[in-house]
Amino acid sequence: MTASTSLAPHYPVVVIGGGQAGLSTSHYLQQAGIAHVVLEKHRIGHAWRDQRWDSFCLVTPNWQCRLPDFPYDGPDPKGYMLRDEIVAYLEAFARKTRPPVIEGVSVQGVRRHADGALEVSTSLGTCLADHVVVATGGYDIPIVPACAHSLPPAITQLHSVDYRNPAQLPPGEVLVVGSGQSGVQIMEDLHLAGRKVHLAVGSAPRSPRVYRGRESTEWLHELGFYKLTVDRHPLGDEARHKTNHYMTGRDGGHEIDLRRFALEGVRLYGTLADIHGTQVSFRPDLTRNLDEADEVYCNIRRDIDAYIARAGIDAPVEPPFQKVWQPDADPTLLDLQAAGITTIVWAIGFRADYRWIDLPVFDGRGHPRFRRGVTAEPGLYFVGLPWLNTWGSGRFLGVADDARHLVGVIGQRLASAATAEAATPERLAA
Questions:
Q1: 0.90 cut: is pTM over it?
Q2: Is the dihedral of CA 189, 49, 17, 111 positive or negative?
Q3: Domain span including residue 123
C-alpha cells in the first residue's frame, strides 16, 4: 500500500497518521477525487499491534466497528475483538481502500510557509500542502509521575504501553497505579494469572456491561448518547479531558466492580500522592472514588430504566445495586518492600505531544483548539480525538462521520480557492 518512497513537492492534502482516523480521512478524500498522501511513522495498525498487551480486546462490541463503508461483518457482532483481530480489521480496511500511504516516515514539523501554504518537514524531506489533517491521536507520551524517580532500582517499573503479560514481570506482588480502562484490565489480567495485585484507584467512572437483558452500549445507542455532541454536553470542552468508563470485553464482556476484586484479595488504595524510596503514600479518597464510580454506574442504570419505562419496553427487572465491600478506612501508606511488591505498572494515561506543530492553535494545556476538528488556522485540522464532536469520535464508531465532515470542509475550501484563482486579473486578462 506504500504509494511512494519519496515526497512530491506539493500536495493538496497531507494526512499525518495512518491509523483508523487517517485511513478514514483518506477514504473520503479518494471518493472526492482530492489528491493527497498519508504519512505513517511506523506501519498501519502499529498502535494496536505493538502497544497493547497480549489479552487486550475492545471494550465496545464489534457492531460498533464502523469504518467508512466497512462495517464489521464477522460472525460475532456482539463480541469484542481481540488485539490481533483489531489489527486484521484495520489492515483489511486498508487493503480495500488502497490509501496512498508512505509508511516509516516521521513528520518533524508543520509550519506556515512564506507563500501561505503549510510546510511539512519529514524524515523523507519537505513538502508543501494546502491542507494538513493531523490524525496522530493524543497518546504520544506515557505519563509517569516525577516521584517515580525516587524508587529504588530493585523495583521494576513499566508503563501500560509496555505491559504484555504477567510472565513478563519478575516474581512478587504488583502495584498497578490507575483505574482507567487500562489499569483495571491489567489488574484483572494479573489477578486471573494468580498474581497478588495492589491497585491505586483514581476518579475514573464505571459502567454496567449488561443490564436488563441487553448490553449497555445497545441501550445507550438507542438513547442517543453516542450522538450527543460536545457543544451540547453539560461539561462542554471539559468532556474531552474526562476519563472513560471502565469495563471490559474480556471473556465475552463483563462489568468491573472493584469492590468484588477486593473481596477476592486485590488490595485497593486511593489516588497516588507521593513516593519516598519504598514508601508510597496515597490520598485518603478510596471510599469517595469507589462511591463516585458507583454513582455513575447507577446513573446509567437509571437512564436505561427511564427509557424502558417511556418506551414501554418489556425488559427483565434487576435488583437494586448493592455494595459488596466497603473499606474500613482509606489506606494512605504502603511499604513496597514489606508488602513484597517488586513491580509497579503505571496506568495513568498519556499526554499528546504537538510540539512539532509550529502554529498558534493550542490552549494553555497544549491541547488543540478546534470546532469539529477545524482549527482557526487556515488549512489545519484534527481528527480521531476523543470528543472531537461526539462520544464516538475517538472510536471505530464515530471516526467516519468526523472524517467525512472534514473532507467536506476541505473540498469546499479547495473549490473556493480554485474559483478565486480563476477570477484573478491575470487569469481574466489571459
A1: yes
A2: positive
A3: 10-140+352-429
DSSP strand pairing (70-71 vs 118-122) = unpaired
**Interatomic CA distance for residues 95 and 110, integer angstroms:** 29
All three cell numbers of 254, joined, read 463483563
pLDDT(391) > 90: no
Q: Are residues 205 and 58 in the same domain?
A: no
**Sign (positive/negative) of CA torsion 14, 15, 18, 23?**
negative
Q: What is the CATH number of the domain that holds 253?
A: 3.50.50.60
In whole angstroms, give the CA distance from residue 267 to residue 274.
Answer: 18
Question: What's the structural domain count of the chain?
Answer: 2
The pLDDT value given to residue 331: 97
Tell me, yes or no, whether 237 and 359 share the same domain.
Answer: no
Spell out the residues 6+ positions from residue 270 whose beta carbon is closer than 8 angstroms to its own.
Answer: 200, 201, 282, 283, 284, 285, 286, 288, 289, 330, 331, 332
Q: How far apart are CA 124 and CA 410, in angstroms?
A: 25
| pLDDT digit string, tens, across residues 240-254 | 777 889 999 999 999
**Spatial separation of the C-alpha atoms in residues 61 and 244, rounded to whole Å:** 16
What span, in angstroms and rounded, lies between the C-alpha atoms of 385 and 408?
A: 18
Q: What type of residue is 419?
A: T
What does pLDDT average to over the chain? Answer: 94
- Asked which of 307, 324, 346 is the last residue of a domain, the reply is 346
Residue 131 and residue 206 in one domain: no
